[in-house]
Structures are given as structure tokens and as C-alpha cells.
Design a protein that fits this description.
Shape: globular
Structural class: alpha/beta
Distance between the termini: 56 Å
Number of domains: 4
Largest sheet: 7 strands, mixed
Oligomer: single chain
Strand order of the largest sheet: 5-4-17-16-15-6-7
CATH class of the largest domain: Alpha Beta
Number of strands: 27
């Protein structure tokens, strides 16, 4: 049977796949052994590519809400006509901020999701932007923005060369990595151990990653920042700091020493439930390693001190001399970022340039907290969100208090959803625009190449042609922009032509740009590509640091290896000082809150989430092969707690918190530490009006319904989804 290549879009590992085709149907998927990055690795999600691609519940045509309130299939022209008729008048009457935009996690997994939403936001000029980042990674963006001047300057561990890896709040054997794009993360950790390196995992659960580690530290959830602050304290106290070549690029070293003076190992031990001797050993091992990296993820972000935790991760990397050196934490150089500008001071990064209308939450990276979306729709007054554009987003399941948001969405004047499914959120839309299955879409990883553990670049055209009646995802987005902004009826390539023209008009004036001094129109004529999206990709490659072209990339179907990560911190820094600002003012102002945690009484029982290898948040629960086996929605509880609470394995528990109550099957296991229970994120497929038969057959429960949205990390606006108190009892 014929085969075709396709980069997997189902998690951040971005593995190369070889698809087996029967006509236009994908009958199998295996790892592409010739892929320059993944070299044949595949996980269960990638192996199920064909099953997901052919899911019979995927929408094949737009849905439009009729006069009787029902959603019915419609033609593409009717769908865009309705958007053009309803959305621009709302903006004219109520202002730009009356239109909210919600971007979900899958946006960064498609070409269209990376290229077009920024154009839509620029055209709408709305400040009502909500994304999955404030349910996941925003603390890392904020800490990087404050320290390095760029919220996307995120260092990643040099997995292939490090000698010591400290992982905190991450489970890459299940997640395949996050903000660290690394195919075969399990193999890389095993290789680290095999070459004599050390793996330390800090996690309240004994995850698959923790079971692989040399040392597992079962910290009390939510106290990661305290533990890391104590590690920093030990480095100063014992004279273990050594910035090495980085010293000339850092300011604030002495200020950090004073800031962590109160966080001794002995002081934090009780709150963290980690003895002082272990804390000192962790700091000494980190400092003594010939090359080391500290890597933190979701478990350290979706907690009360998420930004402080992420800041301390990189403070440790800086103080041990491991930031920006081989084997430490390095900054990737993607092929589609603009060619590096000369080193020197930049504009810096600011928080709170505006605030949300109702509760006054400060923006971060141009976004407001997803937890505030419901109140911004429900609360009357000038600036109320009256219309919503949701792109690849299901916040009814992913945000706190989905019941309230569910009600709020029903009160909107108009809603558009770009989504392949009629799910818990899109069921409220007046228009649903379904993108085609992934096999019918080309793929390039704009976002994840910026977090990759090795510089490389790959592009795969669509393995099979579009089915009749389908519309390319990039065209859907372009037409949405035109319909929403008063340009309905213009050709879709108008959007791409406009972006190309604006980009070239700017870069030809920049001395460091490869296009400096050239004629913009002549340059545009040289761009290749069959579609507007491909022409934009070609432009970005040409303007990037490697001087590539789309034609050259097409000539290398398994990708181009661009080499290992290299030190480049002077090019990265965009702070006003032109240096790494080790103690930014907003961080210093938040430290007293962390000090208060030293004396705060610990909660008797707290809840954490968990990852499943066979899913990605609320995705993929409608694929039978993936929604099976250990991919189950249970309440994990330690045997000691089960005995104390009267819970039995296989029984049902009642779980309560400030946002609501759930009934969950019990799984008694020592994989969680005493005092901790765990429910996975992304479940709760039991609402009426959806069209996802497999997911509805095993719906699970929505763990975020336990929260009312009041718990946020103040600097980033990220919802506290981990380490919050719950009450658990047997269900009567």
C-alpha cells in the first residue's frame, strides 16, 4: 500500500509519522525512522492517527443555528454570510472589547492556528482575549518575560548532554514533554541514566517518570516554590553559586540572596514535608554536576505560586552556571523566528497594561484569565462580552466552574466556534466551522520548534487531498477574518497578501534583516508556495536565522537537522537593561506572599491532576483505542487515607470543594502520597447536546467543577488547578 509522511499534531513531541493509505483513508501509522528529529519514535496517540482521522463524529460541514434554536448543517457560504451579518454590527454598537476571543491548546498544533488568530486579534482590536495559557503555562511566559524581556524566551533542558536533570511538577513519560519538545523523552531519560547521569523528580505522585528516577521527592502539593527557594538559599549559604560565563550578563545576584534569606531548609521542611537534609543534598548535587538543568512544568505552574516557582527554576539554572551552556538549559533557535537582532537593551516586558472589567485582573502577555470569562459575559454594563469567537477551545471542561461558564455561553448574543466536534463548548455556537481531519492538512510546527531540544525544521504537505465539501483549515481562518472585520467576499488570499506586504514593508528597513534594502514587491514575487499559508511560511524561512526556503524544505521530506542548541543569551535578551534581571520587581513584590506560606497551616487533604499518555487534556476521548485501558477518570487515593476516610477500591467517593461536588470511582494506590488525591483533567463528557458518542459512553467527571475560579496566581492570572483543599467521603 502507498505511504505518506505526516508530522504528528497530537502532542508537543511532534514526531514524524509514516502513514499507510488505502485511497484517501489512513489505515495505519508508524514512526518515520528517517525523521531527523524523532527517528522512528511513536506513542499510542500517534499510532491511533488513522482512527482519530476517520472519527465518524467529526463534523463534515458547518453547523448553523436555525430560528427554532437547533443546529443544522449548512453550506460554507451561508455560514460565513451569517458571521458577516451578525458580528461586525455588534462591534459597531458595543465596541471592540464586546467580542471575546478564546484560543484553545490545539491552536499551536496546526499551521492555521499559529498563522491566523494573531491576524484576527489585530483586526478586531479586542482586549478580551482568553487562552489555555492561563490554565497551563502562563507563569513560565511571565517569569521569562520578566527575567529575559521576552515571554517566549523559554530555556529548555539540553537532554542529550546534561549530567543531572531535576524535574519538578512534570511527568514527561506520560505527557511526552511540555514546553520542551523532545520526541522519545523516555528514551532520553534512560540514556541520561545509562551514561551515568542523575535524574531527580519532585512530584507528589510516584509517576512513571518518578519511578525511573534516581531520587523521587514526594513534596506536598503547592509548595514547590518553597522547596526551590530553599535550594537557592543553600547555594548562597554554602558558597555554591558559580555563574561562569553568564556572570557578565546578569544583574540582581546579591538582591536574590537577600530575598531568599528566610527560606532555609529547616524553615521550609515542615511546609514541604521534605526534610532539611534532603533539601541540602539536592542543592549540593545540582551545584556539583558537570552540567545540570532544572525543568518544571504544569504541576509547578497551576498552583498558587506558579510564577514564583517558574522564576526560581531559572534562578537555579543561572546561579549554578547552567543557563545558556551545553548540558544545561539553552534557548532553541527556530527556523521561522526573525533573524537575531544585534545584542543590546530591548523594550522589556510589562504586566497589567490593562485589567479585566469586572474583577480587575491584570493582563499578562495580552491575555486575561480564562477563569474570568464567565463573569465578563454575565455581568451587565459597558464593555460586557456579547459575542465570542472560540477557536479549538473547550473551556466548559478546561476552565474552573464549567457549569457557570456553560450558563454564560448560553446568554451570548452571538458565538462562532472553529472546532471539528460538537462538544461541551461548541454546542452553544451559532456557527460551527469544522476544519478537516489532520490527514487532509499540511503541517509545520511554528510554536514547538521554539521549544525543541535540538534545532531542526520539517514540513509535511497534506498526505491526502481534501474531500469534496471540506474546506482547508487555513482558508476557514482567512474567511473568518474577512467576515468578522467587514471584508466579507474578498478572496481568502487577501489576508495572506496583506500580512506579507506589511511584514516586508517593515523588514526591508531593518539593518539586521536578510531583506534589508530590498524592494518589497520584488521580494514578494520570489515567494513560492501553492497557498497563502505556504507563501507566508516561505517568507518566514527566508527571513529566519538559517536563510532557508520552502523549496529547500520540500526537498528534504524527513526534515533538515540544524544542529544542537548553542549558547546565545546576548541575542535572546530584550530587557531594558540588556541583561538577565534576576529579581524583577513584580517577583520581589510577590515574595512576601510566599513567606506567609511558611506559617500557614497545611490542608489535611489536597487534590492534584494527572496526565494520561493516551490523551491530551480534553482531546481524543472520542477515539475508542485511546479511551480505554488505564486512561480512566478515577480518584486516586493513598491506602492510609482510604482507610481513614472509609473508601474502598472500586467504590464511589464524594469530593467537595468551593466550586461544587463530584462523585468519582475510587482507585486505592500508593502512587499518590498520603494527604493527596488525584483526578485527571479534561473529562466530564456528560452534558446534553454534544455529538461525541465514545466520550459520552465513558464521560468521567469534570475536576475543574470543584473550583469557583477565585484561586489564581496573581502575577499570571493562571487558575490554581493543583494543590487545592478538598473534602472526601464515601458516596452514600
Amino acid at each position: 500500500m502507498p505511504t505518506a509522511l505526516r508530522i504528528c499534531p497530537l502532542c508537543e513531541a511532534t514526531c514524524g509519522l509514516t502513514l499507510t493509505l488505502d485511497g484517501t483513508r489512513v489505515t495505519g501509522a508508524r514512526g518515520d525512522r528517517d525523521d531527523v528529529f524523532s527517528q522512528g519514535f511513536i506513542c499510542p496517540k500517534g499510532a491511533s492517527f488513522g482512527e482519530l482521522d476517520a472519527d465518524p463524529d467529526r463534523l463534515r460541514a458547518p453547523l448553523v443555528r436555525r430560528a427554532d434554536g437547533t443546529l443544522a448543517e449548512a453550506g460554507w457560504e451561508e455560514a460565513f454570510d451569517l458571521i458577516a451579518r451578525r458580528l461586525p454590527p455588534l462591534v459597531e454598537r458595543h465596541g471592540a472589547d464586546a467580542v471575546g476571543v478564546v484560543l484553545g491548546n490545539p491552536n499551536v498544533h496546526t499551521m492555521a492556528g499559529a498563522l491566523y488568530p494573531p491576524v484576527l486579534l489585530g483586526a478586531l482590536r479586542t482586549r478580551s482575549l482568553f487562552t489555555a495559557s492561563t490554565l497551563d503555562q502562563m507563569p513560565k511566559h511571565v517569569s521569562s518575560g520578566l527575567m529575559f524581556g521576552d515571554p517566549f524566551a523559554i530555556p529548555v533542558p539540553d537532554l542529550d548532554r546534561t549530567a543531572h536533570l531535576l524535574v519538578i511538577g512534570a511527568n514527561p513519560l506520560e505527557s511526552n514533554g511540555s514546553l520542551c519538545t523532545a520526541p522519545d523523552f523516555p528514551g532520553k531519560l534512560k540514556a541520561l541514566r545509562k551514561r551515568g547521569g542523575t535524574l531527580t523528580v519532585v512530584d507528589p505522585r510516584r509517576t512513571r517518570t518518578a519511578r525511573l528516577a534516581d531520587r523521587h521527592v514526594a513534596v506536598r502539593p503547592g509548595t514547590d516554590a518553597l522547596l526551590l527557594a530553599a535550594l537557592v538559599h543553600v547555594l548562597y549559604e554554602e558558597g555554591l553559586t558559580d555563574l561562569g560565563a553568564l556572570a557578565a550578563h546578569v544583574q540582581g545576584v546579591e538582591e536574590v540572596e537577600a530575598a531568599v534569606r528566610d527560606f532555609t531548609p529547616e524553615t521550609v521542611a515542615g511546609a514541604c514535608d521534605v526534610d532539611a537534609g534532603t533539601i541540602r543534598a539536592l542543592a549540593r548535587e545540582l551545584a556539583a554536576a558537570p552540567a545540570a538543568a532544572v525543568y518544571g512544568r504544569v504541576g509547578g505552574s497551576t498552583v498558587a505560586y506558579g510564577t514564583l516557582t517558574n522564576w526560581l527554576v531559572d534562578v537555579l539554572n543561572v546561579l549554578t552556571g547552567n543557563l545558556d551552556r551545553p548540558g544545561g538549559a539553552l534557548f532553541p533557535l527556530s527556523a521561522t523566528v526573525p533573524a537575531p537582532r544585534p545584542a543590546g537593551p530591548g523594550k522589556g516586558f510589562a504586566l497589567g497594561r490593562w485589567t479585566s472589567r469586572v474583577s480587575g485582573h491584570p493582563e499578562a502577555k495580552g491575555e486575561l484569565p480564562m477563569a474570568a470569562l464567565a463573569e465578563e459575559i454575565e455581568t451587565p454594563g459597558e464593555g460586557r462580552i456579547r459575542a465570542l469567537v472560540a477557536i479549538a477551545a473547550n473551556p466548559v471542561l478546561s476552565a474552573p466552574d464549567g457549569d457557570r461558564l456553560d450558563r454564560a455561553l448560553g446568554a451570548l448574543d452571538f458565538m462562532v466556534s472553529v472546532d471539528p466536534y460538537l462538544n461541551e463548548t461548541s454546542r452553544h455556537a451559532d456557527v460551527i466551522l469544522p476544519p478537516p481531519p489532520p490527514a487532509q492538512s499540511a503541517h509545520f510546527d511554528f510554536a514547538f520548534n521554539g521549544f525543541a531540544v535540538r534545532n531542526q525544521v520539517r514540513y509535511t504537505p497534506a498526505p491526502v487531498p481534501l474531500e469534496p465539501g471540506r474546506m482547508d483549515e487555513c482558508e476557514i481562518h482567512a474567511r473568518l477574518i474577512l467576515a468578522a472585520t467587514g471584508m466579507h467576499g474578498a478572496a481568502p488570499h487577501t489576508v495572506d497578501d496583506m500580512v506579507i506586504a506589511r511584514t516586508l514593508a517593515r523588514v526591508v528597513t531593518e539593518p539586521h534583516s536578510p531583506a534589508h534594502g530590498q524592494d518589497p514587491q520584488e521580494y514578494a514575487v520570489r515567494l513560492t508556495g501553492r497557498t497563502g499559508a505556504e507563501r507566508r511560511l516561505d517568507l518566514m524561512l527566508r527571513l529566519g536565522p538559517y536563510g532557508l526556503t520552502l523549496d529547500r524544505l520540500r526537498a528534504h521530506p524527513h526534515g533538515i537537522d540544524l544542529g544542537p542548541l548553542e549558547p546565545r543569551v546576548p541575542q535572546v535578551l530584550k530587557t531594558r537593561s540588556g541583561r538577565v534581571e534576576l529579581l524583577p520587581e513584580p517577583v520581589a513584590a510577590d515574595l512576601p506572599r510566599l513567606r506567609e506560606a511558611l506559617s500557614a497551616p497545611g490542608d489535611s487533604l489536597v487534590l492534584v491532576g494527572r496526565r494520561h499518555l493516551r490523551s491530551n487534556n480534553s482531546w481524543m476521548h472520542n477515539v475508542p483505542t485511546l479511551n480505554s485501558g488505564t486512561n480512566t477518570c478515577t480518584l486516586q487515593v493513598h491506602p492510609e487515607d482510604a482507610d481513614r476516610l472509609g473508601l474502598t477500591d472500586g467504590g464511589t467517593a464524594r469530593v467537595k470543594a468551593e466550586g461544587g461536588e463530584l462523585r468519582v470511582p475510587v482507585e486505592v494506590t500508593d502512587a499518590v502520597r498520603p494527604g493527596v488525591v488525584s483526578i485527571p483533567h479534561g473529562w466530564g463528557h456528560d452534558r446534553p447536546g454534544t455529538r461525541m458518542a465514545v466520550a459520552a459512553g465513558r464521560p468521567g467527571v469534570n475536576v475543574n467543577q470543584l473550583l469557583d475560579g477565585s484561586r489564581l496566581d496573581p502575577l499570571s492570572g493562571t487558575a490554581v488547578l493543583n494543590g487545592f483543599p478538598v473534602r472526601v467521603a464515601p458516596a452514600s
